Amino acid sequence: MSNPKVEKVSSEDSLQVIENDDGTFTLEWDPNDPRWSMFNDIPEEELSAMITNGLKDYLEATEDE
Fold first, then answer.
1. Within a 13 Å sphere around the CA of 12, how many CA atoms are in the beta-carbon half?
2. CB within 8 Å of 15: residues ≥ 6 apart
3. Exposed e or buried b for every residue in 17-38, given b needs 16+ CB within 10 A?
4. What is the reported pLDDT for 44?
5. What number of helices (H) and strands (E) belong to the chain?
6. Cβ contact 30:14 at 8 Å
7. 12 pLDDT band (50/70/90 cuts)?
């Protein structure tokens, strides 16, 4: 029995990570994709800082491995 209140979500991930010619990266996603829509209202600078800080934390945590 299916639940009519549950919205069907495509199994295709809409997140795209694109490497630019200058070595930077661009993130793009479908603003309606519930997996990524939480980022819709976050300013670019804040999202960039979140990713940068997360990567720094990861590198520091795995430095001795």
1. 5
2. 27, 28, 29, 33, 35, 36
3. eeeeeeeeeeeebeeebeebee
4. 93
5. 1, 2
6. yes
7. confident
Q: Which helix (H) or strand (E) holds 48?
A: helix 44-61
3-state secondary structure 5-36: CCCCCCCCCCCEEEECCCCCEEEECCCCCCCC
pLDDT tens sequence across 26-59: 999 999 999 999 999 999 999 999 999 999 999 9
∠8-32-7 over CA atoms, to 5°?
20
* Contact (Cβ atoms closer than 8 angstroms) between residue 40 and residue 31: yes
